[in-house]
Here is the input.
Amino acid sequence: MEKILFLKALLIGLSIAAPVGPVGLLCIQRTLMHGPRIGFVSGLGAASADAVYGAVGAFGLAAVTHFFVALATPLALCGAFFLSWMGIRMLFARPAGEAAVAVDTMRPHRAFASVFALTLTNPMTILSFVAVFASISGNAAVGGGDAGIMVLGIGCGSALWWLTLALGISVVRHKIDQGTMRRINQLAGLFLIGFALWQLFGLWR
Here is the structure.
């Protein structure tokens, strides 16, 4: 029973992480720019945020859920500005061969923290986790042991996706020349800015 529950949660973690959005795009760009370690650590930031929201949903923490939902607008606003800032940085990012610094100048803790914060700025994710866990258990609040297994499965599933993505992208990383890398940075930056504008438009509407 515990193994089945863990596998279900693992698949949930994979399904939540797999769609390519701003976080996925950011991890791909960082893998190409800084290598698979930074790309994977960035993904772990997203996986950790998923686990936090997953814990809220699994343990049925209604008060915490309402707290984050109440902050949905300011958090989304912060997330939009954060996306814009990272997008602008990407637009002017220089490939490693052109830069005066080494490829791995981005510190792992900064890579982790930035994506963790970015993922947490989407508090409506809590409602998704609550709905999913309710469908699995028949109730949003489950036993402590089962809830722990579900959160662990969510985190492992999400981390597995980011590891697979970072390793897959690293295979083609060394085949990309500086001109192509520059264009990838610019395109990724424009997409992040586009995501930010779309989020701001959604808030305004």
Notes: The chain has one domain: 2-204.
